[in-house]
Amino acid sequence: MDNNIVIPKHIGIIMDGNGRWAKKRLLPRNMGHKKGAEVFQDITRYCNELGLESVTFYAFSTENWKRPAEEVNGIMSLLKEYLIKAFDYEKENNRVVFLGDKSAFSGELLELMLDIEEKTKDRTGMTLNIALNYGARNEIVHATKNIAQMVKNGEIDIDDINEELFSNNLYTKGQPDPDFILRPSGEKRISNFLLWQIAYSEFVYMDVLWPDFTRKDLDEAIMEFNRRNRRFGGV
Ligand code: FPP
To answer: Per-residue pLDDT averaged across 210-227, rounded?
Structure first.
């Protein structure tokens, strides 16, 4: 990529369009998720090469449980299989963080998630956030409860509550807010993703379906981000 291009610190990606990709090929929806998981791995590597500080992938939302059981089970076994076999977190220097309410998970999948987080927690490379059973409203309620508990315990005073303290009680604590949110597949919605963190983020929407998404598409999104004139409310 051009040397004058500013590389964002943190990109949030809504991996959308897996179902439509499969439908176009007369394949089961879970084949779209499988291809989507491969693209996730390649784009993660590319974000590493580009030198991002953080990248957040929206893999499964609190609302996605409403999908047919076959699809939910398919995504969960794909995730499990993927975390065991294909996910090369051991070779990379990424710190892996699962954003979301883990209480919905149990058994092998939960063990894998906790194990990966523990093994990678002191790494200094890119932070790879995987949002699983994630919903931004849920995250905000969770942070509010933590803070209320601290007040109740007498650890902090109500006047100590400020934006920084609030941010530090979110799943993304300590990370820069996303510079931009990228949503492929032509949809233009935020779908309960990082609502607190996107206060000043740019939005880049692309027509490509996630399983067809390439490194070149990410280059284009970063170029589009560079064309935006970010003023953070100033002049
Ligand atoms: C949205 O497409 C995609 C999902 C709800 C699941 C995404 C999950 C993966 C790509 C697997 C992730 C794996 C790892 C290891 C992180 P959609 O089904 O809503 O597509 P549609 O809008 O075309 O129906």
So the answer is: 96
Nearest CA residue ID for atom 1, ligand 1: 16
CATH number where 34 lies: 3.40.1180.10
Position 117 in a domain: yes
pLDDT in tens, 12-62: 999 999 999 999 999 999 999 999 999 999 999 999 999 999 999 999 999
127, β-bridge pairs: 54, 95
Residues 143/100, Cβ–Cβ less than 8 Å: no
* 162 occurs within a structural domain: no
Q: What's the pLDDT band for 81 if we cut at 50, 70, 90?
A: confident
Ligand 1 pocket test target in 13, 16, 30 with most atoms within 8 Å of CB: 16
- Whether 120 is covered by a domain: the verdict is yes
Among 63, 9, 30, 21, which Cα is nearest to 202's? 9
Q: Is 67 in the pocket of ligand 1 (CB under 6 A)?
A: no
Look up the domain containing 21 and give its range. Answer: 10-135+177-226
Q: Is the CB of 37 under 6 A from ligand 1?
A: yes
| 64 carries an active-site annotation | yes
Domain count, the chain: 1
Structure tokens at 201: 């983020």
CA dist., res. 221 & res. 88, Å (int): 25
Model's pTM, two decimal places? 0.94
What is the number of other CB atoms lying within 10 angstroms of the CB of residue 19?
A: 21
Decide if 61 is inside a domain: yes
The reply to whether ligand 1 has any atom less than 6 angstroms from the CB of 59 is yes
Main-chain dihedrals φ then ψ at residue 14, nearest 5 degrees? -95, 105
